[in-house]
Amino acid sequence: MRKCSIKMKVTLWYTGILSVILILITAAVIVYTNMTGLLATEEEVQGAVTGFVGNIRFKNDTYYLDGDTEFYNDGVMFCVYDESGKLLYGSLPVDFPVQTTLQSNTARIVKNHNKEWMVYDGIYSYGQGKALWVRGLTSIHSVESFLSTVRKILLIIFPGLVVLIGVVGYFMTKRALKPVDDICERADKISGGDDLTQRLPLPKVQDEMYHLTVKFNEMFERLQKSFEKEKQFASDASHELRTPVAVLMSQCEYLLEHGELTEDQRQEAEVIMRQAKKMSSLVSQMLMIAREERMADPSQFEDVDMGMLAEIVAEELEFAAAKKEISIHVDVREECFVRGDQTLFMRFLMNLIQNAIVYGRKGGNVWIRITEEGEKIQGEVRDDGIGIGEEHLDKIWDRFYRADPSRGKEEGTGLGLSMVKWIAKVHNGEIHVESSLGKGSRFFFWFPKKR
Ligand code: ADP
Predict the structure, then answer these.
(1) Is 387 left (phi over 0), alpha (psi -120 to 50) or beta?
(2) d(Cα 180, Cα 402) in Å, to the nearest integer?
(3) Helical H runs in 75-207?
(4) pLDDT tens-digit profile of 168-212?
(5) 49-63, 91-105, 185-199, 208-222: least confident range
(6) 420, 433 in Cβ contact below 8 A?
(7) Is the CB of 304 under 6 A from ligand 1?
(8) Structure confidence at residue 368 as a pLDDT band (50, 70, 90)
(9) What is the phi-psi region of residue 119: left when phi exceeds 0, alpha when psi lies from -120 to 50, beta otherwise?
(10) 383 lines ligand 1 (CB under 6 A)
């Protein structure tokens, strides 16, 4: 019952309550019909006996019975007895218990086997202590059979009626609650997607659903505002941090180049330098994330030659690669134009190629390939470096996730690939990875070609 949906609960409650009401009404109808049916029969027999007595004329010590007296009239049978209970006229039905005692002026039911009769005995005195009994009786089988027919019909109709009520109730509740399902589905899409500026459409009628939608929209509004505040804070903080970090790095660099340092002091200064570099990379990635919305505005997109960008980035990283004796091979044969933000595409390739170098092996290779394939511009950045363990493969795209912080770059932040993924997404592209530990990694991606 706990897992039962509201639709089911409402249907069960409502079907249950209606069934109870139906049972009560049916029971009341049966009892009432029974009572009124018997009462009517009782009055009918009593009236018939009184009518029958009209055929007897009493005079002093004797009585006369009309010659044309009928002992059966309209379903009622009549018998005449003397004061000692001896049957004088009329006959009884075959199954009627002959010994049934005469009781003056009381209607009652007499049963024998499966048959029932309504009996009324009237006593009429005449002469000197003489009396005649007139018994009227009718089978109440007709009332009984009517009631049993009613019961049978109800037994057949009742379950059908309950099922019908249940089904109709279920569909009515489902229909009434459909807006709730719609609201949930849309709210799910908004909160699951990245666009909190979307709102739920307001229903035309100002009912409960309308108020619920308004509350949801107010909640999205507050969420959006708080996200914007957070982003603004990250943007301001990283912007403010840029200058001190740059000063720290340049001063450190100066100290390392021109300072008269002991070996210990040099090592300390180098630690500061490395940490400052890490901070600088973190600050610039955070700044980019904080400004991502503005940068991903399609109205600001331009034509970008992905092939040319790859060559520029490869050239820029030539020095870092040379330090590890890594050879970079760029394979770009034609112009590969896509539409998007040039800085973001630059960052996209930079993060991938930088990783390929950093996680590459000494004396290894990095292959970069950009090609045009139908409606797409495809590319890949491949290395023969340390590779990524299978258990990390789907997590490396998460912010701040680092497969194994002890390996590779000291200044790593775990933000690079999350940014790469996001850049692919805002340009309607896709990126995937294949890697095996110790053998190397292959990051392959595609973007829609510029039209
Ligand atoms: P980081 O700043 O740590 O490089 P990234 O988001 O760029 O952060 O990458 C996440 C993790 O993915 C890295 O910590 C690294 O372990 C793994 N990774 C990324 N690129 C490669 C690669 N070419 N070869 C091996 N491991 C990689």
Answers:
(1) left
(2) 41
(3) 141-192
(4) 989 998 888 888 888 888 888 887 766 778 888 888 888 888 898
(5) 185-199
(6) no
(7) no
(8) very high
(9) beta
(10) yes
